[in-house]
Design goal:
By secondary structure, the protein is mainly α. It has five helices and no strands.
């Protein structure tokens, strides 16, 4: 997905970096092999692997945090699978659902 195809919120979270020639070659090679559909997807996978490695190396981290991290990974995987099969909802619907939850919580606490 190109920069202009992103939503305004996604565009806010863009970080530009400069890669060395070697780094560029590695990413391009991985993308050409077909496992990844774009350089962005290749970088995303690399960052996930790095995060997993850091987490494993810091196994003394709070068990609650590690449980939350694993739960979050599973939710992200589930969301990506939903996207692949076209099970998505629009921004307006998400915002309406969130507003409904807020309204219900306020009503219950009143």
């Amino acid at each position: 997905m190109g920069y202009l195809e992103r939503t305004p919120l996604e565009r806010l979270n863009v970080m530009q970096i400069t890669l060395s020639t070697q780094q560029s070659r590695i990413l391009e090679s991985l993308a050409r092999q077909g496992q990844y559909t774009s350089l962005e997807e290749t970088i995303d996978a690399a960052l996930v692997l790095l995060a997993e490695q850091v987490t494993e190396q810091n196994s003394d981290l709070d068990p609650d945090y590690l449980a939350w991290l694993e739960e979050t990974r599973l939710k992200v995987d589930e969301g990506l699978q939903d996207i692949e099969v076209g099970q998505v909802i629009g921004f307006d619907m998400v915002m309406a659902q969130l507003q409904n939850k807020v309204d219900l919580a306020r009503a219950e606490s009143a």
